[in-house]
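Homework help board

Subject: predicted structure for assignment chain

Our instructor gave us this sequence and asked us to write out the predicted structure in token form, then describe one feature. I got the tokens but I'm not sure how to describe them. Can anyone check?
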Amino acid sequence: MKVTRPMVIAFYIIIGLTALILAATRIANGLYLNALVGVVIGGFCAYRLFVILRSG
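My token output:
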């Protein structure tokens, strides 16, 4: 099965949003250092989406 551009975009959106939701939950529970991992993963996914969408 060939990996197409929309599949990659969907992957980064799903992983990024999941990481940010988990980070928000951990911040609400007071686990700030643990939430940093989710923020970093979400930021990386946002950066990769920006690069993919900018390249056209």
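Reply (TA_rk): Your tokens look well-formed. For the description, you could write something like this. The mean pLDDT is 95. That's the kind of observation they're looking for.
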